[in-house]
Amino acid sequence: MSDPNINNNNSNPPPAKSGGSSIALIVGGLVVAVVVLYWLFAGGGEVENADVVEGDTNVNVEAEAEGAAEAIEDTGAAAVEEVEDAAAAAEAEADAAIEETVDETEAGAVEPLEDETVIETEGEAEVETTQ
Predict the structure, then answer these.
(1) Model-level pTM?
(2) I need a surface site. Which of 7, 49, 71, 116 has the fewest CB within 10 A?
(3) In a domain, 19, yes or no
(4) Is residue 80 part of a domain?
């Protein structure tokens, strides 16, 4: 069946427009930001002590690529040589310490361990080892 109410009145009015104030606020903020950045980077006025440099200034920097490469190679070679010398000295010192320990053991200065040794640790624990 059809609806007997033929009066089509909407009880809800159309929504009111907000006026776009949020977009105006965003655009205003962007304009202020651009002006502040321009003021910071463009500078506002003359440079102090501008009269110190008179005439043209020419700065030339020249470097030889081969000289730099040779310097790097020399530095690397010196570092390698220094490391090798230090390693040889450490090896000689370790060998001398080993020989000294062996000599002391052979001379009887170091007593050999007994068959059963008790090692005390922190607390009340004891560890027994046999050889």
Answers:
(1) 0.31
(2) 7
(3) no
(4) yes
